Amino acid sequence: MHELSVATRILNLALQGLEQQHLTKIHTISLKVGMMQGYEPQWMQHYFEKIAKGTPAEDARLLVTLTPIVFRCRDCGREFAFDAHGTDDCSCPNCHSFSYDMISGKEFEIEQMEASGDVE
Description:
By secondary structure, the protein is of the alpha+beta class. The chain contains 2 helices and 6 strands.
């Protein structure tokens, strides 16, 4: 149920942006979310719909792009994706090292918001 708290944060940020731009209605909010965050897009939308009722974001859609978990091996430099639902082996597939850095998978960004209304 941690999607409820993140949906609340998204709504609050979107409403602040709407007010700053003097707009009146939010249509879509595009998000980039790393798979390491563990959020389920359908639950994010579900909770967003519940808390957005009666606000300028009512009926708005969350467009979620999930980014994979990707590592870069410190020993050989190879980048490789990690499938949390796949193998238990999390070593570099090239040199089998366990020394690597995460380069994607933790993102959480509001990339864009589509809104309308009177611009002053």
